[in-house]
Structures are given as structure tokens and as C-alpha cells.
Amino acid sequence: MELELAALASLAASTVVSGMATAGWEQAQQAMGELWRRVYPERAGTVVAELGEARAEVLVARRNGDEGAERELVGEWEARLRRLLVANPEMVPELQRLIDELDPTARAEEPRTGNVTLTANASGRSRVTMAGRDINITRG
User: Based on C-alpha coordinates, what's the Rg of the chain?
Assistant: First the structure.
């Protein structure tokens, strides 16, 4: 479950940070503020202010062609969103709704979760089936 939460947080962070540099910036800021207000109302104002600071950083990074700075911001917001989801898994549908509102095409793309390492040991007549994603097994 935590891998799914991390993938969702990653997609959401990327969507929000990308939205910071567009005309839809206010929508991204409002949606994130509402998300925090539902769980941590006392922190919502701070989060909204920090989003404003992050937006300024994104705009400077894009103007200077600094992709590394933008990646760092995505990483920062990904960590925040992951912690939010781990502590409040009931917020998963809310975060998915936020992604859908800010980037309707995001659902069509598969979230990238990084590298997956699978290891198996089998002996005798055992069978091992491993997958890094969806798998369908039929026996005929």
C-alpha cells in the first residue's frame, strides 16, 4: 500500500509543481489549501504561503532553465504529500480528485515509481511468478 501512496504523492507533486508555472496556478494553490484544511486546518495557511514561495522558485527555475531546482521542489512536495497520505489514507480520493482537476490527462499516464527489484529462490518443483506491475495468469 505504501508504494501506491508514494506513486500517488509523486504524481500529485509533479502535477502541482507544474501547475505553479501556469495560468491555473490559483486553482492549484486553492486545491492544496483545501486538502490541508480538511486534515490539518491549523497548517493550511502555512502550506498556502509555502506554495506561493515555491511558485516563485519554479518561475525562476524555468526562466533560468534549471530543471534540477524544479525536481527538488517536486521532491519536497512529494514527501509532504506522502506523509499526509500515510497519516490520513482516507485522503487518497481527495488527492486523486485534485490531480484530475489540475491535469485531466494525468490519469491516462502511468505513475513512475522508480526501480523495482524482485528476487526469488525456487527449488524442487516450485513455481515462481513475479511482476513489477499488472499480471494475469491463466492455466489452460
Answer: 18
User: Residue ranges of the domains in the chain?
Assistant: 2-108
Instruction: Decide: helix, strand or coil at residue 42.
Output: helix
Q: pLDDT tens for residues 31-51?
A: 999 999 999 999 999 999 999
Specify the residue for cell string 489452460: 140
8 A C-beta contact, residue 31 and residue 102 = yes
Task: Return the closest-CA partner of residue 74 out of 89, 86, 62.
Answer: 62
CA atoms within 13 A on the CB side of 73: 26
pTM: 0.71
Neighbours of 77 (CB within 10 A): 24
